[in-house]
Amino acid sequence: MKHIISDEFLTIAKVKEILDNHAQLELGAGAITAIEKCRKFLDSKMEDIGRPVYGVTTGFGSLCNITIPAADLSQLQHNLVMSHACGMGEEVRPEIVKIMLLLKAQSLSYGHSGSQLVTVQRLVDMFNNDILPIVYQQGSLGASGDLAPLAHLCLPIIGMGEVVYKGARRSAADVWKELGWEPIRLQSKEGLALLNGTQFMSANAVWSVIQAERLSQWADMIGAISLEAFDGRIEPFYPHSHNLRRQPGQMVTANRFSELLEGSELIARPKQHVQDPYSFRCIPQVHGAVKDTIKYVKSVIENEINSATDNPNVFPDEDMIISAGNFHGEPIAIPMDMLGIAMNELGSISERRIYKLISGQRDLPSFLVAKPGLNSGFMIPQYTAASIVSQSKGLCWPASCDSIPSSQGQEDHVSMGANAATKLVRLVDNTESVLGIELFNAVQALEFRRPAKSSKKLEKIVKEYRKIVPFIDVDRYMHPLMVASKEFIRREDLY
């Protein structure tokens, strides 16, 4: 598969398709023209610029009032990339680094950044050859661009830094020598174009949205199995009440549960209880709100990844170079915090259903084993879920509420969007773990309803699940089964 980088709107679905199919990138003719036109314009301005231009003929941040001699402009950009590679903490997962490469190339392709064609092509070549720079999670304030993470991403362009290539961690210089590539000599504005953008935040957000959409689908299916196992009622999923409220995600969720449960013997049989607990009865309201949040966040992130987010912006047709603030991460920081909260809620209500399933109610055995006491059964998986959910709640404090001035006060309000992004990834991972534990419990509990059957759709999921996770009749080592359960919900062929 080949993907042409152009000004065509890049969707998150397309990014997922590119990654899933190991697509090769290629700069389209329009992108090449735009890049070269912008670079030619900028070079012409350098010959007789007449006034200081931030980051082009000046220092950076609070050093913006220092004019740099023309002979040093290339060194200025080289120094920028080197000096800003100050990341710390955990390494960014490879799949997110690959998204960063794609998004950086996409942003530079619009012809408003002043990059050389060879520089953008090098990003494309790194993507196509799975040369993934070592990037660290900590270091960006989510304004002035994702400076430290993007510096690490772009160090290899100038022949520095470390990469993972063919499964091995190596110096970029060694890999370049092996491939016959030369380090690129950055021209005026280029280092700033590479570092001064939101691609670290955006890449984390894109990855998280992809996972959130999957987990939202699985949460419905797992919740439906739990409802069956708990002998729950179908009435809370009838459309009548949901139509009164007019919340789109709520209506979609209720309708989906009706489809998932169609033909179920269990849901159709008479119930002794009048109402179910909120964790079952209010699934449409909670899962639906998550769906609405994902939809909104997705729209914001898609706008972001189709943008030029560096500074200054170059406008060849208007003969303008404008220093502004498109690098500020606030437009995506707040939505990422929102999505993190939504992911937490998906995990929080899941943990409550887990608790109900092991509680010994509605003719289910305590802790879902036939002989509780001798066997602890599913006691501790709920502990684990509760621990994870508690951690997630702590992670939900919005990073975008914070701001710490930097660069001697020149950058006096920042978004902390990078912290929102890395927190979001953690929250997504946590929610996936909790949903995997719920599925583990729900399928176990369903066995105590036999011989009655659920719907064909849910029984198909149970049948596939039982190929990797057996029924637990007596105590055994649970961790591997919990891991297998988590991995099971990464399947996309069951929904």
Explain how this protein is built:
The strands form 4 sheets. A 3-stranded antiparallel β-sheet has the order 4-6-7. Strands 1-2 form a two-stranded parallel sheet. Strands 3-5 form a two-stranded antiparallel ribbon. The protein is mostly helical. Helices cover 54% and strands 6% of the residues. It contains 19 helices and 9 strands. It has 2 domains: 2-197, Orthogonal Bundle (Fumarase C, Chain B, domain 1), CATH 1.10.275.10; 204-488, Fumarase C, Chain A, domain 2, CATH 1.20.200.10.
Structure characteristics:
2 domains; 495 residues; Fumarase C, Chain B, domain 1; 54% helix; elongated; mainly alpha; two-stranded parallel sheet; Fumarase C, Chain A, domain 2
Give a summary of the structure in a few sentences.
This protein is mostly helical.
Query: Major sheet: size, sense and barrel closure?
Result: 3 strands, antiparallel
Share of residues in helices: 40-55%
Spans of at least 5 consecutive residues with low confidence: none
Order of helices and strands: EHEHHEHHEEHEEHHHHHHHHEEHHHHH
Q: Globular, elongated, flat, extended or rod-shaped: what is the shape?
A: elongated
Tally of discrete structural domains? 2
CATH architecture of the largest domain: Up-down Bundle
Distance between the termini: 25 Å
